[in-house]
Target: Coronin
Amino acid sequence: MAWRFKASKFKNAAPIVPKPEACVRDISVGSYQTYGNNITASAAFMAFNVDHNGSSLAVLPIDDCGRKSKTMPLLYAHSDTITDMDFSPFHDGLLATGSQDCLVKVWHIPEKGLEENLTNPECTFSHKQRRVETVCFHPTANCLLSTTSYTTLTLWDVTAEKELYSNSEHTDVVQAVSWKRDGRLVATSCKDKQLRVMDPRSTKQQVTHSTNSHQSIKDSRVVWLGDTNRILTTGFDSARQREVCIRDLRKFSEPEKTLVLDSSTGILIPLYDPDTCMLFLAGKGDTTISYLEVVDRDPYLVEGIRHSGEQTKGACLVPKRALNVMQAEVNRVLQLTSSSVIPIMYQVPRKSYRDFHGDLFPETAAAESQVSPASWLQGVDTQLARISLDPTEKQLIQPRLGPKPFTPPKLSLDNTSSASELDRVFSVPAAPSSPAINGASHSPTVAEPSPSLASAVTPLPQEEELTNGEEEVSDGGGGGGDVT
Model:
């Protein structure tokens, strides 16, 4: 008998759009030729491109709303269009930006937000004669930043303000980057139609996997599906139809799932939540945002309720620590339009919202790491602590904010560097009254200086072969040229 699909508790998660007065309104967003999402969020702030050329950012509190004045304070970040931006997963006020002016800058947002225009970054990195395409913080190493420029992937130590690693093995422009959640491997999609998986710490072969991906030169995106060995990409096939593919590292040459969507021209932005396995597809220029659930066997992608509204300029997910869990808000998508930011709440229907529904909120990653960039490069890995989203423990999930950072004397960031040193540099410690998370200690583990691929990829067990059986799927599994 064939195995049966079991619907999960997130199947009926419905998008709830707030009234206009609960949105950020009267902003001016242009049309930008970038590979970025044009908006990003931490648990404390949202940041998005504004004005015609997109060289400035508006940075607002995450729950801000209402009409915005044309004279509101801005982050005057670059001399040309900002192509991508990302908040640190460990410091809600630490923002990295990349631009067509070939520079990468790191900013500290004051605890109360921008009360005046901000023009001075904490540090600046140069990609010389090439525009910056993507910017992404590492998921487990504190203050480790990855950027791409043309064919080059670079890792920067933000604290020491220096380059740690560079790889130029791509043959064309890198369009998207995504780290595995454990921070060991990184996936890239490229204009040469190749999908690559890289191990920056390997002393032998740094490109561990490579295969043909979407067969159009139009923009493609990549997102690693959490801690699993599976990677999801979006792009266009040879007939210019939009498609979504899922690949397993253990059978990398052929996708285990290809979902052909439509012939629209908008670049699909994949937004994935590894805690709930919820996937959102927001197309630049589209008026709909699709919700699908990722499962670990056929059909792999289960369609949920689709949202229809205004035309999308960009989109991002809000971190779990900022959600209204008492209203069963399991995810929130910030949709950037030409004149507004719309917070779309995805709510699981329940008879009552008086109590905390713990079955909807698995423990999520804590916003702290004890691994420095130099330590990670030398082979130190760590498993991030997990925290509960139960409001009775809300003191554990406060945004990690603090006073303005300072420039200290040169620190020795070897494998003995501690999280306290890094927090001292950026002056953004956790709330002093917070007790230890879950009462557990999550010390970093030291790997070999060159971690083997076997330690990063889980072998395919014999019993996982997709033969017949009676198993049930558990509740879940595991733009450059586009003008909008």
About this structure: Residues 367-430+444-454 form one domain. The CA atoms of residues 325 and 356 lie 7 Å apart.
